[in-house]
C-alpha cells in the first residue's frame, strides 16, 4: 500500500514569524483521521523569520528529531545544552521524564528552515538526552546510510525507538534501491528536486513537499528526475 500526500494537501499554519506545513494532525490542525503513521506522530516543515523563534516549552515521552534544511537553528534546553545547528545538521532529543527547550533563528538576515519529526519512544519515563551531528552533502550523496537509528554505530545519532532515518542526496538520473519492507513501514518526504517512486507495477512522481506512506510492498526504486537538479529526501524506516 502506498499513499501519496502532496505538498498542497498538508495543513498550513502561519503564526506571525513562524510558517509551518504540517503532515499530521498537530496544534491548531485537528484531524482524527490523520494522527500518525506507525510511531511517527509529527512531521512539521518549519520556516522561522530572522531574529525570531519558539520560546521555551516542555516535552515528555517523545523522541524528537530535527533536520536543518537551510540557515541556522539555535537550540537551548534546561539540561544545559546550547548549540547553533547549521545547514545539514541533525539533532535528536529524548524528552523522557521531561525536558524544556527553545528554538530560534540567530540570523539577522536569513530565515531558517527545519524539519521536525516526533516519534513515540520504545518505553516511557526514560532519562532525557540530547545530541547533534552535521553531515556533509558529500557523505550523503547517493548513500543510503542511517543517520539516526535505534541501533548504535560510529556514524549515527541514537534514539529510543526501532527506526532508521536516512537523508540521501541523489544526482539527476541516479537511483536508490530499497529492499522490501515486509511488515515494516517506510515514510518518504521529498525536501527538494523531483523523483519517481517505483513499487511493483506502480509509479508515482513526487514534487518538493510531497510524502509517500508505504506499507507491505516489495522492493522500491527511487529515481531522481530533475533536469540537472539533485533531489534531497528524508526516508524513515519504522515499525
Characterization of this structure:
This protein has 239 residues and is an all-beta fold. It is globular. Helix content is 2%, strand content 51%. The relative contact order is 0.18. The longest helix has 4 residues, at 137-140. It is built from one helix and 23 strands. A hairpin with a 2-residue loop joins strand 19 and strand 20 (202-206). Strands 1, 13, 14, 15, 16, 18, 21 and 23 form an eight-stranded mixed β-sheet that branches. A seven-stranded antiparallel β-sheet has the order 2-3-4-11-6-9-12, with no helix packed on it. It has a four-stranded antiparallel β-sheet with strand order 5-10-7-8, with no helix packed on it. The mean pLDDT is 95.
Strand content: over 45%
SS class = mainly beta
Give the low-confidence spans: none
Q: How many individual helices? A: 1
Mean pLDDT: 95
Tell me the span between the first and last alpha carbons. 15 Å
Q: Which keywords apply here?
A:
single chain; 1 helix; 51% strand; globular
Offer a quick outline of the entry.
The protein has 1 helix and 23 strands. It has 239 residues and is mostly beta strands.
List the helices and strands and how they pair.
Elements: E1 2-5, E2 11-15, E3 18-22, E4 40-48, E5 53-59, E6 63-70, E7 73-77, E8 82-85, E9 89-94, E10 99-104, E11 112-119, E12 129-134, H1 137-140, E13 148-149, E14 157-158, E15 164-166, E16 169-170, E17 175-178, E18 185-192, E19 195-199, E20 202-206, E21 211-215, E22 220-224, E23 231-238
Parallel strand pairs: 13-14
Antiparallel strand pairs: 1-21, 2-3, 3-4, 4-11, 5-10, 6-9, 6-11, 7-8, 7-10, 9-12, 13-15, 15-23, 16-23, 17-22, 18-21, 18-23, 19-20, 19-22
Amino acid at each position: 500500500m502506498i499513499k501519496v500526500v502532496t505538498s498542497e494537501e498538508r495543513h498550513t499554519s502561519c503564526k506571525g514569524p513562524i510558517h509551518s506545513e504540517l503532515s499530521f494532525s498537530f496544534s491548531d490542525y485537528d484531524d482524527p483521521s490523520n494522527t500518525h503513521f506507525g510511531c511517527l506522530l509529527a512531521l512539521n516543515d518549519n520556516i522561522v523569520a530572522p531574529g525570531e523563534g519558539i520560546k521555551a516549552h516542555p516535552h515528555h515521552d517523545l523522541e524528537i528529531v530535527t533536520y536543518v534544511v537551510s540557515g541556522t537553528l539555535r537550540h537551548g534546553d534546561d539540561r544545559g545544552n546550547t548549540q547553533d545547528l547549521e545547514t545539514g545538521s541533525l539533532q535528536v532529543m529524548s524528552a523522557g521524564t521531561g525536558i524544556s527547550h527553545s528554538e530560534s533563528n540567530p540570523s539577522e538576515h536569513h530565515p531558517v528552515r527545519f524539519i521536525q519529526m516526533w516519534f513515540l519512544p520504545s518505553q516511557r519515563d526514560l532519562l532525557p538526552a540530547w545530541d547533534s551531528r552535521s553531515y556533509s552533502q558529500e557523505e550523503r550523496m547517493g548513500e543510503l546510510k542511517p543517520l539516526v537509528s535505534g541501533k548504535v554505530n560510529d556514524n549515527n545519532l541514537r534514539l529510543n525507538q526501532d527506526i532508521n532515518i536516512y537523508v540521501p542526496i541523489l544526482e539527476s538520473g541516479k537511483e536508490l534501491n530499497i529492499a522490501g519492507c515486509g511488515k515494516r513501514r517506510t515514510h518518504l518526504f521529498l525536501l527538494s528536486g523531483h523523483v519517481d517512486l517505483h513499487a511493483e507495477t506502480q509509479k508515482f512522481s513526487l514534487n518538493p513537499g510531497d510524502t509517500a506512506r508505504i506499507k507491505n510492498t516489495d522492493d522500491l526504486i527511487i529515481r531522481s528526475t530533475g533536469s540537472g537538479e539533485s533531489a534531497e529526501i528524508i526516508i524513515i524506516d519504522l515499525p
